[in-house]
Design brief:
Layout lengths: L11 H4 L6 E5 L6 H11 L4 E5 L2 H7 L17 E7 L2 E8 L2 E12 L16 E5 L13 H13 L11 E6 L7 H5 L3 H9 L4 E4 L4 E5 L4 H6 L3 H6 L3 H8 L18 E7 L2 E6 L5 E4 L7 E3 L3 H10 L1 H8 L3 E3 L2 H10 L3
Parallel strand pairs: 1-7, 1-9, 2-5, 2-6, 6-7, 10-13, 12-14
Antiparallel strand pairs: 3-4, 4-5, 8-9, 10-11, 11-12
Helix pairs in contact: 10-11
Length: about 350
């Protein structure tokens, strides 16, 4: 899949030809995800929302030194930010050190978008959600997957009911963690896992309007591999994520394929279906659902109910009486029980 320009950076002219309204792009660091997406919007006079996870991140990027629009100055785009409403910042062209003309873009935070009142985004066609996969040290947002969907509802309103095109949502991230709240909520964890196993760069889920790009072999990454930082880091987790788009992988302690004939489906939670062995004190976790098990969705309150009702599964896990079809399902189980 050729989506890089002649200089080796992401070519958003090609990516924006993708007709699906929801595009997830995960790639190595500094290959032009943020820069390329913003430049495309400015080049084509598309008004857009630039969103980050937390208000703290948004407050930082509003400063000139950390503003993601600043690198575009070399392309002739001199911009400045100014508040529009509480938790909403506008990006404007700079004319004689003052904001000029209508807003080019709006900057929002996922963590505070639900508090926005009276903000009309009907003139926005695209939302860029940058760094949508939080790093492990970052604090999670309550019901983060649902917050993401609610943000889209708040911004998109009823435009499709009025005959308008759907809001195009472009989610960008480094490959910090495959098992992230948005992929869990959208049930995309197992989809991306299969892409990784198949060494696939692109997945088109047309029925859901979703495109997933897993970027490997970036020309820029190949050049960066010989720089001093990556010589220092060597072949490890950091280099794998930053250069090769490798998701962090947890220890696969209990991954062992089992025959479902020996088990009976007991409960479903999110993407997990947990089976109980018919004769042994043993359980098996898979993505395959059969029979009529009890069902919990992936919302925070439902997961809390599940972990309360089935607390004994946590003890069974610690006693190594639970096996998993894949290591990703093991990670999901651990996160549900906060292990």
């Amino acid at each position: 899949m050729d989506i890089y320009d002649k200089n080796g950076y992401l070519d958003f002219d090609r990516i924006m030809e993708d007709q699906n309204p929801f595009i997830f792009i995960m790639g190595a660091r500094a290959i032009g995800k943020t820069y390329g997406s913003i430049k495309y919007m400015l080049d084509h006079s598309i008004k857009f929302i630039y969103m980050r996870r937390t208000q703290t991140q948004v407050d930082l990027i509003k400063t000139p030194a950390l503003n993601p629009f600043k690198p575009l100055e070399a392309e002739g785009y001199e911009t400045v930010t100014k508040p529009i409403a509480k938790n909403v910042t506008g990006v404007y062209s700079l004319d004689e050190d003052k904001p000029s003309g209508p807003a080019l873009a709006y900057i929002l935070a996922l963590s505070t978008v639900s508090n926005i009142r009276g903000f009309d985004a009907s003139d926005v066609d695209v939302m860029i959600y940058d760094e949508f996969i939080g790093e492990k040290h970052e604090k999670s947002i309550s019901n983060e997957g649902l917050a993401f969907l609610n943000a889209i509802e708040t911004i998109a309103r009823n435009r499709e009911l009025k005959g308008q095109k759907p809001l195009k949502v472009i989610c960008l991230s480094n490959t910090n963690d495959l098992v992230n709240p948005i992929f869990i909520e959208l049930k995309l964890v197992t989809v991306v896992e299969k892409m990784i196993k198949d060494n696939s760069d692109y997945k088109n889920i047309k029925a859901r309007g979703v495109s997933i790009y897993l970027l490997h072999n970036s020309p820029i990454s190949r050049q960066k591999a010989s720089t001093s930082l990556y010589k220092l880091a060597g072949e490890g987790v950091f280099s794998g994520m930053a250069l090769d788009n490798d998701f962090s992988q947890e220890y696969m302690a209990m991954v062992k394929s089992q025959s479902l004939k020996e088990y009976k489906a007991m409960v479903v939670v999110g993407e997990l279906c947990i089976y109980k062995h018919k004769s042994k004190r043993q359980y098996y976790v898979t993505a395959h659902v059969s029979g009529k098990p009890e069902v919990y969705d992936s919302s925070e309150i439902e997961i809390r109910r599940f972990t309360t009702d089935y607390y004994y599964l946590k003890l069974s896990y610690l006693a190594r009486h639970i096996f998993f079809e894949t290591y990703l399902l093991q990670i999901l189980f651990e996160r549900y029980f906060k292990l």
